[in-house]
């Protein structure tokens, strides 16, 4: 239960910053309250803080694509995958409801009918619903595969002890910068969801609070499935690329990095179960 609450609150923090900044930018179309860069930075900050909130207890996955990739390639218990994914999605859902409530007046000012015009506050759309974007479902699908593959590939590099990972508990900061980079480089085609919980939780929250077209894109095509399926596939591809392209060639014994374990010892946390996020310990 501790691990599930950690994933719930970690993902909630992520969405409070991420969906919150999009709401701020969209409801102030004159640009006085931010732009794409502020969105990218706030999402990255949300990742940093979400991982710090949850990392000690659950490993700080806060993303079903990461959880599934860790189960497939890093020994994370498969029996925990579904509970983790549900906790992450529920955390995203609750956070989106909070944003929806707090920003209700500003949303009503710019889009009183709760249409596709402001739906992007909560969930992603092809081409970010930009005028003239004309991004196809196929392009959006592969965009999400590539973006999530980059995310998981680099995350695996950052948590591998033999790869000289960041020290002094700085890994969450570097992962946050990674998300900022993905947002700045891979945000145009599909809004860089790269996280099924991040998209579906807020999408469901918007559906239940007045956005009747929340499960569709701007063309009326069912879209809710794409930011779920494509990131999972991308995460698996990124994990496989690291395992077979980099990890197999790393030295078996690290020489300068501290030991990082994938499971807590009783002394670390007698109540926690298995975790897939690294823990830094003194060098033996």
Largest sheet: 2 strands, antiparallel
Uncertain stretches:
256-284
Cross-sheet strand order for the largest sheet: 1-2
Q: For the record, give the distance between the C-alpha atoms at the N and C termini, rounded to a whole number.
A: 32 Å
Percent in helix = 55-70%
Percentage of β-strand residues? under 5%
Taken in chain order, the helices and strands follow as HHHHHHHHHHEE
Shape, per Cα inertia axes: globular
Number of helices in the DSSP assignment: 10
Mean of all residue-level pLDDT scores: 90
Q: What class would the helix/strand composition place it in?
A: mainly alpha
Total DSSP E strands: 2
Structure description:
With 284 residues, the chain is an all-alpha fold. It is 56% helix and 1% strand. The protein is built from ten helices and two strands, in the order ααααααααααββ. α2 (36-58) runs antiparallel to α8 (171-185) and α9 (196-207) packs antiparallel against α10. The longest helix is centred in the N-terminal third of the chain and has 25 residues, at 2-26. The chain is globular and about 60 Å long. Residues 256-284 have low confidence and may be disordered.
What layout of secondary structure does this protein have?
Layout: H1 2-26, H2 36-58, H3 64-73, H4 81-102, H5 104-110, H6 116-119, H7 137-158, H8 171-185, H9 196-207, H10 226-245, E1 260-261, E2 279-280
Antiparallel strand pairs: 1-2
Helix pairs in contact: 1-2, 1-4, 2-8, 3-4, 3-10, 4-9, 7-8, 7-10, 9-10
């Amino acid at each position: 239960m501790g691990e599930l609450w950690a994933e719930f609150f970690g993902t909630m923090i992520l969405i409070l910053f991420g969906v919150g900044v999009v709401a701020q930018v969209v409801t102030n179309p004159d640009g006085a309250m931010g732009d794409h860069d502020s969105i990218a930075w706030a999402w990255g900050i949300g990742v940093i803080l979400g991982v710090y909130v949850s990392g000690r207890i659950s490993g700080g996955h806060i993303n079903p694509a990461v959880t599934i990739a860790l189960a497939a390639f890093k020994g994370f218990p498969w029996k925990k995958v579904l509970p983790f994914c549900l906790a992450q999605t529920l955390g995203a859902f609750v956070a989106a409801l909070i944003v929806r409530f707090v920003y209700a007046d500003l949303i009503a000012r710019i889009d009183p009918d709760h249409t596709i015009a402001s739906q992007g506050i909560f969930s992603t759309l092809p081409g970010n619903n930009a005028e003239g974007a004309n991004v196809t479902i196929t392009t959006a699908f592969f965009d999400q595969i590539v973006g999530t593959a980059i995310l998981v590939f680099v995350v695996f590099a950052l948590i591998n002890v033999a790869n000289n990972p960041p020290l002094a508990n700085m890994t969450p900061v570097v992962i946050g910068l990674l998300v900022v980079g993905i947002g700045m480089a891979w945000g145009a085609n599909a809004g860089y969801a790269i996280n099924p919980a991040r998209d579906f939780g807020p999408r469901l929250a918007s559906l239940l609070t007045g956005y009747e077209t929340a499960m569709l894109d701007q063309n009326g095509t069912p879209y809710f499935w794409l930011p779920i399926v494509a990131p999972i596939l991308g995460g698996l591809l990124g994990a496989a690329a690291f395992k077979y392209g980099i990890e197999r060639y790393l030295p078996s014994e690290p020489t300068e990095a501290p030991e990082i374990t994938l499971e807590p010892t009783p002394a670390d946390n007698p109540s926690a179960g298995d975790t897939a996020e690294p823990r830094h310990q003194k060098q033996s």
